[in-house]
Amino acid sequence: MGSKQWVFAFGEGDGRNKMLLGGKGANLCEMTQIGLNVPPGFTVTTEACLAYLDQGALPAGLMDEVHAHMRRVEQATGRTFGGAENPLLVSVRSGSSMSMPGMMDTILNLGLNPATLAGIIRQTGNERFAWDAYRRFIQLYGKIALGVADELFDARMAAVKKRHAAAQDIDLTAAHLKELAGEFLDVVKQQTGRVFPDDPYEQLDVATQAVFRSWNGKRAIDYRKQFRITKDMANGTAVNVVAMVFGNMGDDSATGVGFTRNPGTGERVVYGEYLTNAQGEDVVAGIRTPKPIAEMAAEMPDLHRQLMELAAKLESHYHEVQDFEFTIERGRLYCLQTRNGKMNALAMVRTSVEMLAEGLISRDQALLRVQPQILEQLLVPQLSPAFKGTPLATGLPASPGAASGMIVFDADTAEIRGKAGEKLILVREETKPEDIHGFFAAQGILTSRGGKTSHAAVVARGMGKPCVSGAESIVVDVHTKTAHVGPAVLREGDIITIDGSTGNVYFGEVPTVEVSFSQDMATLLAWADEVARLKVRANADAPHDAQRAREFGAQGIGLCRTERMFNAVDRLPIVQEMILSETVEERRHALDRLLPIQKEDFKGIFKAMDGLPVTVRLLDPPMHEFLPTAAQLELEITHLRHFREAISALQEMPETLKLLNPRLHHQYEESFGRLMDGMTEFRDTHLEDDVIARKEVVLKKVKAMSEVNPMLGHRGVRLGITYPEIYEMQIRAILEAAAECLRDGIDVQPEIMVPQVATVEELKRIHSYVERIRAEVGRKYAIEVTFKFGSMIEVVRACVRAARLAETAEFFSFGTNDLTQATFSFSREDAENKFLPDYYDAGILQDNPFEVLDVKGVGELMKLAVSLGRGTRAGLKVGICGEHGGEPSSIRFCHHAGLDYVSCSGPRVPIARLAAAHARLGEAGGSGSA
Ligand code: PEP
Ligand code: MG
Question: How far is ligand 1, taken at its centre, from the CA of residue 620, in Å?
Answer without folding.
Answer: 9
